[in-house]
Amino acid sequence: MRIDDKTVLITGTNRGIGRALVEEALRRGARRVYAGTRRPLPYSDQRVTPVTLDVTNAAQIQEAVKSIELLDILINNAGVVQYGDDLSDRSVLERQLATNLFGPHEMTRAFLPLLIRSRGAVVNNLTLAALAAVPLSPAYSISKAAALSLTQSLRALVAGSGVKVHAIFSGPVDTDMTQSLEVRKASPESFAQAVFDAVEKGQEDIFPDPMSGAVGEGWRNGVSKALERQFSELVGASANS
């Protein structure tokens, strides 16, 4: 799928990765980019439509659905992280599940009819924490692991409708969320470029930076991916029985 002349909705676009995704979509010739943020931000490019969109707010999601008539690509980028939790406070886990798991679930459910019509794509930003827990942020890791299962399940369920479902497994990216981490980080711009490169090539699992790229091949050829493919065949078998 080429981004040129496509309509794209991106959540969490107030800064960092989200902002870079908006700019990269425009650079590739997107016809319209809906930029979702909790508070609308101005854009100089007339192809950008700001959307007030808190992914934990069902009413705002429904208002967004009403305002968008066509959609080719939904990028579930909005996310929250809290470092230093020890899983003793359930509310910390619930807060991150609300944004990182139920947010993408509700967004995809709401916009799936438009994506089926366009035979479009869903892109979920999961990070490497979906594959292995990061002890500095266990609640975040749990929410991202759950979001991976959501992504894999959705991928199998909508395959027959022509909708592609992509997962982004990124390492650290240089944003406000990771400023306390003293590790090598990719730039938001290089992240965005790699994500859209992969979407255009039809790669369902995206490893957009040097750190994640080092494990990408092992993931694609590993037992977890093999099981995903095997289990996804059950959907077709069930439909034909």
Task: Describe this structure as you would to a colleague.
With 241 residues, the chain is of the alpha/beta class. The protein has a single domain, classed as NAD(P)-binding Rossmann-like Domain (Rossmann fold), CATH 3.40.50. It is built from eight helices and seven strands; from the N terminus they run E-H-E-E-H-E-H-H-E-H-E-H-E-H-H. It has a seven-stranded parallel beta sheet with strand order 3-2-1-4-5-6-7, with helices on both faces. Helix 1 (16-27) links the parallel strand 1 (7-10) and strand 2 (32-37). Helix 1 packs across helix 6 (188-201). The longest helix has 21 residues, at 138-158. The mean pLDDT is 93.
CATH architecture: 3-Layer(aba) Sandwich
Q: DSSP helix count?
A: 8
What percent of residues are in strands?
A: 5-15%
Mean pLDDT, all residues: 93
User: Topology as H/E string?
Assistant: EHEEHEHHEHEHEHH
Rough outline: globular
DSSP summary, beta strand count: 7
**Any idea how many domains?**
1
Per CATH, the class reads Alpha Beta
CATH level 3 topology: Rossmann fold
Largest sheet: 7 strands, parallel
Structural category is alpha/beta
CA radius of gyration? 17 Å
Low-confidence stretches: none
Strand order of the largest sheet: 3-2-1-4-5-6-7
User: What is the straight-line distance between the termini?
Assistant: 32 Å
Give the % helix: 40-55%
Q: Can you identify the CATH superfamily?
A: NAD(P)-binding Rossmann-like Domain
